[in-house]
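Incident review: delayed structure delivery

Summary: a single-chain prediction request sat in the queue longer than the usual turnaround. Root cause was a stuck worker, restarted by the on-call engineer. No data loss occurred. The affected request and its eventual output are reproduced below so the record is complete for anyone auditing the incident later.

Affected input:
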Amino acid sequence: MPARLFRYQDPRVMQRVWPLLHPSQRTLWLGPVEQWWSLSQPWGPWDPAQYTSDGAIRRADPPPRWFRATAPQRDTANFDGAHIGKTCALLDRSQWDAAHATPYGHRTWARLARQRVPVEDQPDGDTMLRLLTDGRQHGLDGSDLEEYVICTWQTTPLADGSRELRWQSPRGKRVLKQVLATLRQQPGASFIGLFSDTLNRRT
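Output delivered after worker restart:
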């Protein structure tokens, strides 16, 4: 795995990764510190009501909540200490994906909220992380990664009640293959624009 920057000082990132860490990893991160506190950073849909009609964000003062990371029991940490020795890395791939997904997840929810998509019609936290991970596996990043989620997630249920576009269907595979190929040829193009153009050409 190539070298990456882990923004541990960003509580949004650390709070997404912390639940995925093994006890031995938590022990390494905290060191002599017994507890690490930060203001809770929610991971979930954004309410359209927090935006004004022109798309500006409203100021809100919700009551503060705290996130607390605590050191595991010493015997628990030692139990799976071999995890670190075997991987020779502080984070595994799924943990890196969770850390990397944090800003893109929030920006995607913000885009949906600005479009007045109700909270109940947006992907939840687990779904968002899974879709972002899927997009990363296709080599997507930045705004293209966000747009992959927006194109995959259906704010209005499909005929069978599902919410996700079936990229594994024959038609879905063809469309995605074409979009990804064009993105490689035209780095300045957008995923959502190419997706729309490809669908229109095939209808």
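Verification: The radius of gyration is 20 Å.
Action items: add queue-age alerting; document worker restart procedure.
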